[in-house]
Amino acid sequence: MGRSDRDLVAALRAELAAIEPARACDRAAELAGLSGTREQRDPVVARVAFRLRRPSRQPVGGPGDAPERAPREGASEDRAPAPFDWDAAADHCRIAWLRGRFLATGSLSVAGGRVHLEFVVPPEEGPVLAGRVASIGLPASSRLRRGRGVVTWKGTDNVGTFLRLIGVGASLLELEARSVARALRGELNRVLNAESANLHRAVSAAGRHVAAIATLESDGRLAEQPHVVRLVADARRSTPEATLAELAERVGLHRSAVQRALDRIERLALHDDEGAGRRSAPTMRDRDGAARTGLSETVGAAPPGQRPLA
To answer: Does the predicted TM-score (pTM) go above 0.85?
Structure first.
């Protein structure tokens, strides 16, 4: 993952860490989600956990609710969060818990244009977490990896939906913009490569056609070809850069007819030693090297051992 990608992931985590839940139940739910091993080694998670353990400035509750008291100095770090009851919790509490769980156990990779989000949790929690996110319409894969439970999403759409749900805003827009830019660059490169290959093939074919036409013209066989072949040869020789479709439009023929005429020209040029393409009777060479016309090939000639026709 490049430096810019790492900076984007860091900005995304910082944006999540800066969210201040307004409800006391959301603060407790996010704190429950933060519980895990990363809290001790991740300064971002440690700061969020410390802030959530402090009492909110404006406690949410009814008129008869007693205000929340601040814990004694040194006691806030030791107080364990209450277990989170997913089934009984409201939707906003579930979102807060998922946000805390992502900060504590989640990771995001955007290397190479592929977006990959995963939670690394205790092995018994993996299927439970996968079931919880599936219940809110975000099914994820769950597996064991080196003795740890791993819950995974792949793809910008799935990851973006989850990040948007837990409160990511500006960083998610940047992530989606980068994904779109990578997709556009990939599509543009694919189109350019295809066009370059097509152009290379067209230039090579045009070069072969022009060389074959010159060969047939030099030995006089081009003049002996049908009118369509000569017409296509003249069009190709005058416009070597034209495509088959352009040649077909130029001579007023179908593209397949132009292709057959050019194939015939190439084939005749490759077999000039056999006299291919001549409309006159073929010649044979005797032992002395003299050329003569084969009588068996002429009209009315009799086969060996028979009298000629009257």
So the answer is: no
